[in-house]
Amino acid sequence: MTIELRGNIGYILPRRAIKVASMILVAYAVGVSTVLFQTVTCNRILTPSIMGFDALYVLLQTVLVFTLGGQAVLTMSEPLRFAVEIALMVGFSFLLYRWLFTGGGKSLHLMLLVGIIFGTMFRGFSSLLQRLIDPSEFIILQDLFFASFNNVDGALLGYSGVAVAVVSFMAWRMRHSFDVLALGRDTAVNLGVDHKKAVTATLVICSVLVAVSTALVGPVTFFGLLVASLAYQLCSHFRHTAVLPIAVLLGVIALVGGQLVLERIFAFDTALSIVIEFVGGIVFLILLLRGNVK
């Protein structure tokens, strides 16, 4: 916030504050949603992004540019576009994930297969539409595909904070159920938890958090997997009262610290999202090679 703070402080400081606040909000949303998503799936590899959420975001942006035009999308009311993106992404993810994870006979292979199929289908539609749009509009579209903390709207940040606060209150009231859900469906039912209701509520929380994060700054596919995996490694036990805060703090350190390194050492020679995706992808491959599925 204050490193090399020179010039018009009244202009620079609020912009830096919005950037840092957006990083903290995204770190919180992605960290919490990933840990809770892994809780209901009883799997340490699955994340909302891996299950096709980012491909849905790309398709949504492509459809908007294809139907309305790049300039119309850029000049569209930010709150309106933000609300439409969140509503569509929450609706899709909730319907898909609830169908997958509330039944007793759903297997990991089915979850992965459905996620891959939907992700491939969304990318295929996106690729088809991108080939049909004007090259100048395609350039506009490309800017929407990468996570960026430099152009976050302050009003949207406020709306996002309200949405995150509401679902966080829901998560706080359910905090004692998460540890039981992580034991699996049969064990949770035997311990008296209404599994279907608890999973549905948790998926609503995850859907809103991921939708807000993605609509605010763009997709970050492997960031949640990275911070969640490190949180489990650093935590001495797997209780959510410890894992969730650790995941959030690691996310804040990664985003704020990473942005600081890029600005002061690399002088914006690369985007923070690219570095995070690269490291997160390596972690994902390591988990797969180690067979750390559960």
UniProtKB/TrEMBL annotation:
One function term, GO molecular function aspect: transmembrane transporter activity
UniProt-annotated location(s): Cell membrane
Domain of life: Bacteria
GO CC annotations, alphabetized: plasma membrane
Membrane-spanning segments: 20-40, 55-75, 82-101, 107-125, 154-172, 201-230, 242-262, 268-289
Pfam families on file: FecCD
Name assigned to this protein: Iron chelate uptake ABC transporter family permease subunit
Entry similarity comment: Belongs to the binding-protein-dependent transport system permease family. FecCD subfamily.
GO biological process: siderophore-iron import into cell
Membrane topology: Multi-pass membrane protein
Record has Transport as a keyword: yes
Protein keywords: Cell membrane, Membrane, Transmembrane, Transmembrane helix, Transport
Species in which this protein is naturally found: Arthrobacter jiangjiafuii
Keyword Membrane in record: yes
Main localization category: membrane
